[in-house]
């Protein structure tokens, strides 16, 4: 396992400590607060407005399963590896437009991450759907990257394209980190492509 490149920085009080080298990744992480805020606003929006945005809302159950490949640590590439991504969306939404889901990532170097959370699919034209999501789960490093804590929070953005009725492909990107619960919080970014079936 390769160590992350760090630099020593000093805060306003003169205290020093390691920090990951400044990069586009830092700016991505700084945007997480905005992402969470937008997600919460969408969840709290009126059901009538959300129903207009979500594609295919009705009272029938719509479970969905997905399987795909994922590239772990795609941003910094200090301990990158390929993995298998699995997902399952609950058949019934919450609040009319928010869907519970569970999933797992299993990397080639033995790392594993199982998670659960909430998705907010927003239907667009031409069979496209954009789905932000928030979740949390448990991480085991195996011989892969150490993330400082078994508890990892997940923020994700996914773009789905329906190629046939009930079937489609999804491009997804998500960030996981322990939100300061561990002695270190390097975080990791995952990029992947999956095939999904809506039952």
Measured distance between first and last alpha carbons: 40 Å
**SSE order in H/E notation?**
EEHHHEEEEEEEEE
| Class inferred from helices and paired strands | mainly beta
**What is the chains' assembly state?**
single chain
What is the number of helical segments per DSSP (H or I, 4+ residues)? 3
Main beta-sheet strand count, sense and barrel state: 8 strands, antiparallel, barrel
Overall, the morphology is globular
| Alpha-carbon Rg, integer | 18 Å
The CATH topology is: Porin
Question: How would you describe this structure in keywords?
Answer:
single chain; Porin; eight-stranded antiparallel barrel; two-stranded antiparallel sheet; about 15% helix; disordered N terminus
Produce a short descriptive summary.
With 199 residues, the chain is mainly β. It has helices spanning 24-30, 32-44, 47-53; strands at residues 6-10, 16-20, 64-72, 81-89, 99-107, 112-119, 122-123, 128-140, 151-164, 167-177, 188-198.
Explain what this protein looks like in three dimensions.
By secondary structure, the protein is mostly beta strands. It has one domain: Porin. It has helices spanning 24-30, 32-44, 47-53; strands at 6-10, 16-20, 64-72, 81-89, 99-107, 112-119, 122-123, 128-140, 151-164, 167-177, 188-198. The protein has an eight-stranded antiparallel barrel with strand order 3-4-5-6-8-9-10-11. Strands 1-2 form a two-stranded antiparallel sheet. The longest helix is centred in the first third of the chain and has 13 residues, at 32-44.
